[in-house]
Please model this.
Amino acid sequence: MLGAVVLGVVFDHTTSARRDLCVGIACGLLACGLMAMSMRASGFVIDGRGAVLAAAGLFGGPIGAVAALPLPLFLRNEIGGPAVVTGVVSMVAQAMLGVAVQHLRKRGGGAFERRSVLWLAAASPLVILALYIPGLAPASTAGLRAEIAVALLLWLPFSTLVFGLSTMNELSRANRLRAKRFTGQFERATGLIDGTLFDAQLMQHWRLHERYGSGYVYMLVSIDDVAALRRTYRGADWERLVVDIARALRGAIRHCDLCTRTDIDRFAVLLPHTTLPLARPVAERIASRVARTVTRPNMPNGRITVSIGIADVDGTQLPLDVLGIAEGELFLANGRMANGAIGPVEPVRKIVRSFPGAVIEMGSAPSEAVPPIGNDRHASRERAA
Model:
């Protein structure tokens, strides 16, 4: 259990560039700690290092396996005994087995998940074959092979499964903590809000629209040429670029408008009490500000552009309909123009509702305002207003 916590800390405080090496070093130290314990017991032989070395190959890959093996191999050679060669071969086989499972998962295109641990646990008894390689085990231990094999056949799958699942839980905790910390830093640097809070505000404005007819606009902002940008900018460089774009976006909208990051290259903007014709200038201002302020010398023309899809809540039936409409408008806009596109091109003339009873068509004269229904004194006051 301590080993799983150690690996969780390693994943939480190391970057991907050196994580495999740190995982291997941690697993090597854990294996040496287990091998150096002074424990005497009668009965079956229990291999305490097997699950740790297998996890080094599974979670650290080839680099992790290579980094984990030197210290345990050196300690095994120093301890000596009648089966040094057999122990060395079994340790190498355990680490390589983890590497093989990781390679098969990556080659198959599957995500790294608990199933990988189950596969490794099922295949872990294969290292018992090292006991039966001719010439490795001395004759004095030949009679114990069956007894050792039975013990390992029971112990290796169980220990690998327990240690692997414990490590997976620690990695999930570390990933959640790292994502939370990264999101907080991103929001403080850009002024954007959390996605959960954004969704809650979106639902609140939908309720206001259903109850009072107040309108709002949802905009989907996408960074153009993201594939080329990701080839040029990686890791921290890409995140710094996204921070610059987010700052430009936040500076182009009102303080009452809401903005959040929805994907690696996309942002969502909520404009309360706004209609489609009035949102078009906001989208143009966002695109202009990003192109003007976010520049990179090693990019074509040194400019970063964004494309924007705009969706009005009028005519929608469900709260999340605006997301699909904005996605479709962005797709259609990119079909007309690859970079810097804004859709729809020509907003449809619609009814603007600032509050119930005040309804006016965009482009009409003030005298054409539709009066509220009713002949009571409240209706007269509203008409006078």
About this structure: The first strand starts at residue 216 and ends at 223. Residues 192-348 form a domain with the Alpha-Beta Plaits fold (CATH 3.30.70.270). Residues 212 and 220 are 25 Å apart (CA to CA). The first helix runs from residue 2 to 13.
